[in-house]
Write a structure and sequence with these properties.
Layout lengths: L2 H36 L10 H22 L4 H12 L2 H9 L5 H22 L1 H5 L4
Helix pairs in contact: 1-2, 1-5, 2-3, 3-5, 4-5
Length: 134
């Protein structure tokens, strides 16, 4: 196998992991969110945006952590990826409290910020995410 082929497979595994994380994130968000709503524990984002965000980040983290552990990743990278779900609140909550953004802005910016933050966490452990896990 040539170096180019190995490099291509390495980046392919990296990209596959990124897609898997997005799917697991949304599965956790929608699956647990629907379950919470079904039992009367849903939180509307416009009425309680801080609580809504924290619950959403937790739900996404559950989906991602479950999938990462299933795929053989250790606790450190799993918890780092989960932390990325909560990271956007650092600059956004104060902006919300100051009235610079509203609940819809919080939802939009937090979701957009998660994707590059996930990539940053993955690049931090490039060998972890470009390696073969099953």
């Amino acid at each position: 196998m040539t170096t180019t082929t190995r490099s291509g497979r390495r980046w392919g595994r990296f990209a596959l992991h990124y897609v898997e994380m997005i799917i697991a994130m949304f599965a956790g968000m929608f699956g647990l969110g629907m379950l919470q709503s079904a039992v009367g524990l849903g939180v509307p984002h416009t009425e309680q945006p801080e609580l809504w965000y924290l619950v959403m980040a937790f739900n996404m983290s559950v989906g991602m952590a479950a999938w990462m552990r299933f795929r053989g990743h250790g606790w450190a990278p799993t918890l780092e990826m989960c932390a990325v779900m909560f990271a956007p609140v650092v600059p956004l909550f104060p902006l919300l409290w100051l009235g610079v953004i509203d609940a819809d802005g919080l939802m939009l910016v937090s979701h957009v910020a998660m994707f590059p933050l996930m990539l940053a966490a993955m690049f931090r452990r490039l060998d972890e995410y470009a390696a073969h896990h099953h």
